[in-house]
Amino acid sequence: NKKAFVELLFWKSPAAVYEMTKGYSSLQEGEGTTRSRVPPWTPQEEQELRELYWKYKELEGGDIIAAILAHLPTPGRTRRQVVKQLVRM
């Protein structure tokens, strides 16, 4: 492809660079950018998060998010994910 050099002029993700060097469609299903996606919140997790928020929202001088993370039944959620979900809800 004589015009492949144009692709080099723009920023690329690591997955796109891998495809450029190894050949297009070389990434298997579940690799690259799709691997880093955050699992969606289930309705049960949302309900538990809502209940924990109402339980700890009156916490004086404490970190509400830290208290929620300590009592969240689903391990693996980050502080950022919890805050983002609370804002979204």
From TrEMBL:
A Gene Ontology biological process term: replication fork arrest
One Pfam short name: HTH_TIMELESS
GO molecular function: DNA binding
An annotated GO cellular component: replication fork protection complex
Stated name of the protein: TIM protein
